[in-house]
Amino acid sequence: MKKMYQLFASSLLAMSVLSCGGGDLDVPPKAVLTEEQVTSAKNIDGLVIAAYSYLGNDHYTSPMFLWPTGNLRAGDAHKGGNGPSDIFAYHALSMFAPLVPDMESFPPDLIDLNNKKWTRNYTGISRANAGLQVIAKADASAIPNAAEKQAELRFIRSIFYFDLKMHHKHIPWIDENMTQEEILATTNRDLTDQQLWDKIAEDFRFASQNLPEVQQDVGRASALSAKAYLAKTLIYQAYVQNDTHEVVSIDSDKLNEVVSLVNEIEASGVYGLLDDYGNNFRAAFDNSKESVFAIQRSLNDGSPDGRGSWSTALNAPQAGGFGCCGFHVPTDNFVNAFKTDNNGLPLFVTYNDANYDMLSDQIDPRLDHTVAMEGKPFKYDPNLIHGGDSWARAPGIYGNFTSMKELEHPDCDCRGENGPFPIWSMNTVLVRYSDVLLWKAEALIQLDRYEEALPIINRLRTRASNSTGMLNNASIYNIKPYSSFASKEQAFNALRWERRLELGLEGHRFFDLVRWGVAKETLDAYFEIERTRTPYLEEAAFTKGKHEYLPIPNQQVNLSGGIYVQNPGY
Fold first, then answer.
1. CA quadruple 515, 129, 156, 283: dihedral positive or negative?
2. CB 397 within 8 A of CB 83
3. Contact 116/61 with Cβ under 8 angstroms?
4. Four-point Cα dihedral 126, 131, 133, 139, nearest 10
5. pLDDT in the model for residue 418
6. Stated pTM of the model
7. What pLDDT sits at residue 38?
């Protein structure tokens, strides 16, 4: 896939497509391609690559790595940075109460981050639709493997749609068959919640049926990665919500299909778990067997600013050889969740009674792969010890922990800089194989087959237990598998806990809470304790039936001529 981006760099010049991170192009185009010129096998592939490229054309103001909306809203991370006014909109995400449809109104942000992400997603959808339109209009003999190209474009399109759906619930569906007049008349309530999920599932299903099981170019969508995204769509869709976002039923047919899809993925033998959990978060292991689908990053692809991870450009600490900018700070609550009892199992009830003491508390080793903290080696380097407050930007407000998965060692040749911002060529993994396995476990538990989920969860815990070799004995490690599940309730609690630890700070947590219908109770419990430790949270408040989703951006409501319907409560 890296070579795909080199091809794309030249395609950009031909097709006048803009890249992120730099300023506007002010060079007049030398030529315009006709539709006939674009409609060829070579240029159709260029359109497909342009759609792929937009996945990585993200930024910390509109990231595909969902640390602002998936972690800040879940109680797993503080915004960080230089206090609440430093990108206030992200502060609002943590607090919930200040969220408004027009987030540009938050000074000194000067930009509506909510609208920017909406716009970026629909730009990606537009790229995919443009390619699909060209294929539909072309003579069948002009484009070899047309169905495969369509499948890739539909796969990418619905990654953007999935992102929109998770964030906003009610969104307008725009596809390649619609006229401009039809697009302008489309509202975000033309399709029901379930019908929108059906549309997204239809794209991934088509991709799973028309793509090869394995692609020659690493990073391209395959039938298996499409099956994974289809399973992800169905696990979300299975939890049927009413108009105020309450889970009112769980669709067993959807869950059974999730199990079948994951069984097919497992049977292929293409994916597997890495022996050491920590290698998932090292650039040297990009496109490993555990990476089901990832945004391919690079620093030298021929484009002006490369294709580095601008989504994480704020997240490195101030010291330690980084220099900017101290965002995405893990919370005490999150760190405490890794504590274990003498049997190596989570402290489900008492985990947050006191903050983690590294000298006495036993922990799940995944903590030291996820969170860097004072006195411990950073990124497995015994000569690079986290400096606590000296590494943090505003430790008095947010503490001094550092989220580590999205960062590499400061001396890594995968690091680049743009001004003060460190960026990385390390891929952004959107779907990891352990996530896929946990969807299956979740489906089995909800189908009352919780005994079958036990070995799946234990497989991840055993891998975690064996993942201490790089950790330099930084902590007291004690993690064991479960001996059995006595009930569905116990199994589901273990599943929820396992997802928080295994996928910690990878951007999934808040969306899990909403899917399960437990966001309100979880966040109320978090705020009750955390506001005594972190005073800025004093006014934080989650409103049930409202804050499960972000508002429709006010600018989009205005641009629609008022036909878009705002989400409840805003």
1. negative
2. yes
3. yes
4. 180
5. 84
6. 0.93
7. 61
